[in-house]
Design a protein that fits this description.
alpha/beta; Rossmann fold; Nucleotidyltransferase, domain 5; 2 domains; 10-stranded mixed beta sheet; 6-stranded mixed beta sheet; 20 strands; about 20% strand; globular
Length: about 450
């Protein structure tokens, strides 16, 4: 009798899927966790299955005993199964952002994530860097299983699998269709096929990616228990997310989220490519000097924003290089304001702009005290950063009458929905950038550039 056999339908398709990187699921009850355990127990020699919270891992451990019990040996101290044929499965939590370091250099031919959208993108990319084997003929692959993200921190999943999950993507993909990707000069690009190619004396081998949906209706065991009735009784948007795996419906905002998600999405829905009808008003610039962060330029034409210009941090590792990018960006509109966060790495870029005679470059210190109020004249702010984010909130407020138009950009959406606010005796405060980085797993550079573009000299 086989150790485990996939259910007919999507689970079998996922088991035999040839993608190097698979996202499976969407809806609840489609057999996502079972797929990960089944793959690890029957198709791979050395596997790692992660859950974000260790407490969530207990359900997976219980299920693994139901599948593997009597056919292998489990070590509760290490969270490791030893199965027939020399197969090994490690199961662990990865709660903190830095918990990923535990898996540095640890090779597994299967890297699996249960409830993928609970993880940060940087955790996912870091852990999967060691998806490898020394066993000849053993296939390596990455499988993530999960439901639509319920927080902004998980929306990177929609961006990474955009051809399948983002309804606005210019080139939609069918479920199970392979798409090919490779890193070229530090940027991921989509390719037409999986053929290796030469780039700057390096042979680059593209990797394939796909998404396969699964629903409770595909699981006869849960259908027999009436679980579908439970899902049907959930309130929206949870009902559509878990019953239908709908990635387009809104998640519930945090009570202290600074800018409501619905306002941002409405601004993105209003956006049209041909919206630029006036001269460039301002460019917000968030500078990165090397490292994983990005340099982002947000160009504003009145109430219409152009698609964000994003550059790898190593492209702007000096202030002069950043200033040269800015100069190129405003070439047709030299009178446009250039708004730069002058704290830290932005200071050298601002100085270089002056050397290049970019006369309308303005230096803003986000930590500076301000006497400004919100549009009602009632609320005050702890610093310029809080004022900038709240001003963007006011501009996006549908009752404000501004009709701001933001380019559809999943990363920008995540950045703008990430900051939380609080009321202090000094006024409104936006949480520190470092706290946002811990949740997102990256710097919210897109939002930083955007809010800079709306600031005006005083």
């Amino acid at each position: 009798m086989p150790l485990w056999t996939p259910l007919l339908g999507p689970q079998t398709l996922a088991y035999h899927c040839q993608a190097d990187e698979l996202f499976y699921g969407g809806a609840a009850g489609g057999g996502k966790s079972d797929l990960l355990l089944g793959l690890a127990g029957t198709a791979h020699r050395k596997s790692l299955i992660l859950r974000r919270e260790s407490t969530q891992l207990q359900e997976l451990i219980i299920r693994s005993h139901e599948i593997f019990g009597g056919r292998g040996r489990y070590n509760g101290l290490t969270g490791t199964w030893r199965l027939p044929g020399g197969r090994m499965i490690e199961m662990a939590g990865c709660k903190q952002e830095q918990s990923k370091q535990k898996w540095k250099g640890r090779a597994h031919d299967l890297k699996a994530f249960d409830e993928l959208s609970d993880f940060t993108e940087s955790q996912y990319l870091f852990v999967t860097a060691w998806n490898r084997t020394t066993v000849e003929g053993q296939r390596c692959r990455i499988v993530g299983a999960g439901n639509p993200p319920s927080t902004c921190e998980g929306e990177w999943v929609i961006k990474r699998w955009a051809p399948w999950l983002d309804e606005t993507h210019k080139s939609r993909a069918k479920p199970g269709e392979l798409r090919w990707y490779a890193m070229v000069d530090g940027k991921e690009v989509e390719l037409e096929n999986g053929r290796a190619f030469l780039w700057k004396k390096e042979i680059i081998q593209p990797k394939s990616r796909t998404f396969l949906p699964a629903f409770v209706q595909d699981n006869p065991y849960l259908m027999a228990t009436g679980y579908v009735t439970t899902l049907q009784g959930l309130p929206e948007p949870m009902r559509s997310q878990l019953l239908y795996g709908d990635f387009s419906v809104g998640r519930e905002d945090d009570a202290w989220q600074a800018i409501p998600t619905a306002w941002i999405k409405a601004a993105m829905n209003r956006w049209k490519p041909e919206g630029k009808k006036i001269a460039l008003s301002a460019v917000g610039v968030d500078i990165a000097h090397g490292g994983p962060a990005k340099t982002v330029l947000a160009k504003r034409y009145g109430t219409w924003f152009a698609p964000l210009e994003k550059y790898d941090g190593k492209v702007t590792d000096t202030g002069m290089k950043a200033a040269a990018l800015i100069q190129q960006s405003i070439r047709e509109y030299p009178q446009a304001l250039v708004c730069i966060d002058s704290v830290g790495v932005g200071a050298s870029a601002y100085d270089a702009c002056k050397e290049l005679r970019i006369y309308h470059a303005l230096a803003f210190n986000f930590s500076a005290k301000v006497s400004n109020t919100d549009r009602t004249g009632v609320l005050y702010f702890v610093n310029l950063r809080a004022f900038a984010y709240w001003t963007m909130r006011d501009l996006l407020d549908p009752d404000g009458g501004q009709s701001i138009m933001l380019p559809p950009d999943q990363e920008l959406l995540s950045d703008l929905t990430a900051p939380h606010w609080s009321m202090t005796t000094q006024g409104i405060k936006i949480e520190p950038k470092e706290d946002i980085v811990k949740r997102l797993g990256r710097s919210p550079d897109c939002a930083g550039a955007l809010v800079l573009s709306i600031l005006m000299p005083t």
